[in-house]
Specification:
10 strands; about 15% strand; Rossmann fold; globular; binds D-glutamic acid; 6-stranded parallel sheet; 11 helices; single chain; about 260 residues
Length: about 260
């Protein structure tokens, strides 16, 4: 494996771009490959076996593109497939973990809300995370069906998105939450609206920057860091329709980019 090889990143759709932003900030010299499995989003209502099979197929595609490391920029795929991916692929595989630890450190009320897909909340990883911290604070898991679809549709601030968010977030506030964890990589794109709903006294946090730091550490330990003085490139693929994906990916990436069709995998 060569340090000049790219890093592969994938998600069920465009949500993982929130993680890609942090990776780009932390690692400006790296070449990045991004796969949005938008043809199969949302993962949240699919079976564990389906998500696992998609995660393996996309990882194989990224390995064929010579990825030196893979970032599973999806909490739901992490919950469903991370053990299998790590047993099948030898390179560093970096996973998501909802930012419960920093939330526990931040909360004054002792109540934190975790917004995620129902599959993430039911995953062994999350059950373990919950068990580790639930003696210290009250952790309220909130499944948020429909939010991923709103982000995939590019509706980050419309009435329907606001109504859905109010329905999910206000009960957390009523139960005393002063810290909200965004446990799905799509949700950081809704953070301005969420912050507007919860007000300035409630912290809204996610784990994208921590994942980018973890990636940096793993590459450093493996002597796989690219020359930081260069400027890295990005390539984007979708299993959806590239012409439809291009404006949304460009909007969320904040630059006009090409999006290629993911070869059948
Ligand atoms: N971005 C994915 C996550 O972090 C969304 C899951 C889905 O597609 O339902 O969980």
């Amino acid at each position: 494996m060569n340090a000049s090889n790219p890093i592969g990143v994938f998600d069920s759709g465009v949500g993982g771009l929130s993680v890609l932003h942090e990776i780009r900030k932390a690692l400006p010299g790296e070449n990045l490959l991004y796969v949005a499995d938008s043809g199969h989003a949302p993962y949240g209502d699919k079976s564990r076996q389906f998500i696992e099979a998609r995660s393996i197929a996309i990882s194989e595609f990224l390995v064929n593109q010579h990825a030196k490391a893979i970032v599973v920029a999806c909490n739901t795929a992490t919950g469903a497939a991370i053990a299998t991916l790590r047993s099948r692929f030898l390179m560093p595989i970096i996973a998501m973990e909802p930012a419960v630890k920093p939330a526990v450190e931040n909360t004054k009320s002792g109540v934190i809300g975790v917004m995620a897909t129902s599959r993430t909340l039911a995953s062994d990883n999350f059950v373990r995370l919950f068990a580790r911290y639930s003696a210290e604070v009250e952790i309220l898991g909130q499944a948020c069906p429909g939010l991923v679809d709103q982000v995939e549709a590019g509706d980050l601030s419309g009435d329907k998105t606001r109504l859905l968010l109010e329905q999910y977030v206000l009960p957390l506030l009523e139960r005393g939450a002063d810290t909200i964890v965004l446990g799905c990589t799509h949700y950081p794109f809704l953070a301005p609206l969420i912050q507007d709903i919860v007000g300035p006294m409630v912290a809204v946090i996610d784990s994208a920057a921590a994942v980018a730091r973890q990636l940096h550490r793993r590459l450093e330990v493996g002597d796989l860091l690219a020359d930081a003085s260069g400027s890295g490139t990005e390539f984007f693929w979708t299993s959806g329709t590239p012409n439809q994906a291009k404006p949304l990916v460009s909007q969320l990436w904040q630059a006009s980019v090409e999006v290629y069709h993911l070869p059948t995998c």
